[in-house]
Write a structure and sequence with these properties.
7 helices; alpha+beta; two-stranded antiparallel ribbon; 2 domains; elongated; about 260 residues; Aspartate Aminotransferase, domain 1; 5-stranded antiparallel beta sheet
Length: about 260
């Protein structure tokens, strides 16, 4: 292992050892074991101590060409967060937390649980290789630059790109943090149906039920996919909750027919 960094005049390795000793229970034992496995997966790992705040003493960090992972301890678990976990292959499904983000992934270890040694060390080596390659999964938040025409468009002009409703439905959208589909703003039923179809898991079923309920209640409703402010998001969630409650009440009615 390479020389660790320093913080508050103490080597990071000493601060990590001190944190483990202070925990003094299964969390300390778990953090100590995972520390050993990290070093086994990468003998050249550098231990660091970062993000010291008045209300937080700091966080153990293991790095090699960039951050591999951090080790945090909570009341009910020890959390190892991999900085580029979303770009790592995890066939054994070690990652069980922070699964909605585009960059990080985490492993929450609870009392009595053990992480498979060979699988975890392989994950550490994979993270190091990714750091050294300088590659990571591209962000989904950025918008592609507008294409420039090379033919009829003159210098400094941009080619016009048109999108039909069919193309909105056919293209599989990316999921933003939180699991919401990234759908272009558009009016009409087609983009709304594309948004609902792209919703993950149970959200898709709830979306279809809400859509059917709203159309049944307001037959002439105008549909659209639009960008929303924080206040509009809160208002929409409130309306959705009220609509779902109305649907649930209607479903329980003896006169209800699906």
């Amino acid at each position: 292992m390479k020389k660790s960094g320093t913080s508050q005049g103490q080597p990071a390795s000493e601060l990590i050892s001190k944190r483990i000793a202070e925990l003094g229970d299964w969390r300390g034992e778990t953090l100590s074991r995972m520390r050993t496995l990290i070093k086994k997966g990468d003998p050249d790992v550098v231990e660091e101590w970062k993000w010291v705040k008045p209300t937080k003493p700091g966080t153990p960090v293991w790095s090699h060409g960039g951050i591999i992972c951090t080790g945090e301890s909570y009341k009910n678990c020890v959390k190892l967060t991999f900085a580029k976990g979303a770009s790592l292959k995890d066939p054994a499904r070690l990652f069980n937390s922070s699964l909605d983000g585009n960059v990080r992934r985490a492993i929450d270890i609870h009392e009595g649980e053990e992480v498979d040694e060979s699988t975890f060390t392989a994950l550490v080596r994979q993270a190091v290789a990714l750091n050294r390659s300088g590659k990571s999964k591209p962000s989904r938040k950025g918008k592609p630059a507008a294409a420039k025409s090379k033919g009829a468009a003159g210098k400094g002009q941009r080619a016009t790109v048109t999108k039909s409703k069919d193309s909105l439905v056919a293209t599989k959208p990316a999921l933003l943090a939180g699991g919401n589909p990234q759908i272009s703003k558009a009016d009409g039923d087609a983009p709304v149906q594309a948004y609902i179809a792209a919703m993950p898991g149970w959200k898709r079923d709830v979306g279809r039920r809400l859509d059917a309920l709203i159309v049944r209640t307001v037959p002439d409703v105008r549909k659209a996919v639009k960008a929303r402010t924080r206040r509009e998001c809160i208002a929409t969630r409130t309306m959705q909750r009220e609509a779902f409650e109305r649907w649930d009440t209607l479903r329980m009615s003896p006169n209800h027919r699906d």
